[in-house]
Structure formats: C-alpha cells, structure tokens
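Mods, move this if it's the wrong board.
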Amino acid sequence: MKKFLATKNILATVALTILFAIYPKVAYGMHIAEGFLPAKWCIFYFVLIIPFFIVGIKSIRKKTSNNKELKMLLALVAAYVFVLSAMKLPSVSGSSSHPTGVGLGAIIFGPTTMCVVSVVVLLFQALLLAHGGLTTLGANTFSMGIVGPFVSFGIYQLLKKKNKTLAIFLSAALGDLFTYVATSIQLALVFPDKSGGVLASATSFLGIFAVTQIPLAIVEGILTVIIFDFISKHCKNELKLLGEDF
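Not the wrong board. Structure tokens:
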C-alpha cells in the first residue's frame, strides 16, 4: 500500500510539472517541425519505425498483461518522457534542443518499449503543444524513440556491472546526445551543404546543437540517476517482475 501511495504521489508531482511546463509557453520550439521534411522522407521514416513499434507493442503486452503495478510504472516513465521533452529551447531553425527522458525507460523496460512511448508522447505534443508535427512524427520517433533508447540500453548493459550509477548517468546523457546526432544527420540528408555536402551540413547542425544540448544531457543524466534511485527503492517488486538485475 505504501509503495502504491508513493507511486501515486510521484504521478501527481509529474502531472503538476506538466501543467507548469505547458501553461504559459509559446510553442515556437519543435523537434522537427510540421512540413519541414519532404514527403518522401516522411514516408521513409514512418516505414522505418514500424518494425520497432510492433516489437515494442508486443513487449509491453507481455510485461504488463498480468501486472497492474508495471502498468503504473510504465505510465510514470511515459510522463517523465513527456515532461522532459516538452522543456524545449529553440536551436536549429525548424528544430529545438531539449532533454528526452528516454534513457530511464530504456533501462527499465527496454529500447523497443520506448519507441511506443515516444510515438504517444510525440503525438500528444504535436496535437496539444504544436511541438513537432504529424508528418514528421516518424522522423522524430526514429531519433528520440529508436536511436536514443538503443544507445541508452547498450551503454547501461555494458557498464552496469562495473559502476551502476555511472552506467545510468552515461546511459541517459549519451542517449540524449545521440538523439541529436541522429536529428542532425536527418536534417543534413535533406538539406546538404552546397559545397561540403551532407557531412559538412551534419557538422554544422551538430555544432549548433552542442551549445545547448551538452549541458542539457548532463542535467538529464544527473536527474535520471536520482529518479532511478527513487524507483529502485520504492518499486522493488515491480523491477523484480521485469526479470532484470537492477
């Protein structure tokens, strides 16, 4: 009962944070903006994310079908992603810098689950906050819901037995940064530099993103360590149900 109330209090706090995050903000910052990518690229990314989305749906059903506690924990992870990725700072024209929050979910539920969570989060942000877009949903999901989570998951699995705290920090921070590496490459492929081509364009985008994204990634890493520590103390049974050595 105490664990349930603790989780309920977390969700209430997250809900309040969401309200503060979205209330008086002007929606000029975006992932990749609506209409910013040509139709062929939009279609390409939608097709690309489909296999990950399907595997993610199956993974969620398998893990939560008989466990209400895990559904609550997954809702918490989704709310965490929504809040962090809604805190945007304008960066490259047609895009923005912001934390992603996907590292926490990738560690707990696996990377494919975060593809599904990212689709839901990005869809709500596009409809409610004008943050991102419907036509660019596939492209934004690829960078934030596939590249970021897989990097986070891989780093955590590689380092967790050596230093768990460092593994969580680097998992969240580098997952965040690689989301923007992917976004930079996506933009460079569509808008190559006239003289230097895709590589020069990607380098330019990365240089602009780095100014705001590196500090944000560090902050996200620290915050994820704190949140994960809280979850590991108050949701031990839920983590055991996932069958991972947390």
